[in-house]
Write a structure and sequence with these properties.
With 179 residues, this protein is an alpha/beta fold. The chain has a single domain, classed as Glutaredoxin (3-Layer(aba) Sandwich), CATH 3.40.30.10. Helix content is 37%, strand content 20%. The protein has five helices and seven strands; from the N terminus they run H-E-E-E-H-E-H-E-H-E-E-H. Helix 2 packs across helix 5. The protein is elongated, with a radius of gyration of 23 Å. It starts with a helix and ends with a helix.
Length: 179
């Protein structure tokens, strides 16, 4: 084969490859239904609206402008129980500085009665909402409890922590996001 024929064949194969890549791309995002596989650092926190025990609706996007610690938990979960005093202390210390904790109870695995007892027992004053259908846990693809998402003032997830958090860890992350 002559050198010119090789070049032409190479260019033709390259053009076919580029054409195939262009034609086979998923231009409409259908491969993931337009969503990321799981909420993660650097992505906008998926919005949801849930109710408190008192029936008050809380919408995550309404908290924009504040640093949010979004925590998924249940009353029967030992690490969840262990981190709640640290959360209450951090909330008490930073709530006037545009910080809020939004605790999402996995109510499909719990009960509103147990949640009410838990809130009283631990003296919790931050918003606690009930995920009665499990939809929000599925939306965030929570695999184990507790799971926490640190969300900045623009609504972007800055960190995901699976497992319990100590007070020093909560404080360090909140102070960093409030800068």
């Amino acid at each position: 084969m002559q050198p010119n024929h090789r070049r032409i064949l190479f260019v033709l194969i390259l053009a076919l490859g580029v054409g195939w890549i262009f034609l086979s791309t998923d231009k409409e995002g259908l491969s993931t239904a337009g969503q990321i596989p799981a909420p993660q650092k650097g992505f906008l926190a998926p919005d949801f609206t849930l109710e408190t025990l008192e029936g008050e609706s809380v919408t995550l996007s309404d908290l924009r402008g504040k640093v949010v610690l979004l925590n998924f938990w249940a009353t029967w979960c030992p690490p969840c129980r262990a981190e709640m005093p640290a959360f209450q202390q951090a909330y008490a210390d930073y709530k006037d500085e545009d910080f809020v904790i939004l605790a999402v109870n996995a109510t499909t695995q719990d009960s509103p009665e147990e949640v009410a007892k838990f809130i009283d027992e631990y003296g919790l004053r931050f918003p606690i909402v009930l995920d009665k259908t499990g939809e929000t846990n599925r939306l965030y693809q929570v695999q184990s409890l507790p799971t926490s998402f640190f969300v900045d003032k623009e609504g972007v997830i800055q960190e995901v922590v699976v497992g319990g958090l100590a007070e020093a860890m909560v404080r360090a992350r909140v102070e960093e996001l409030m800068k």
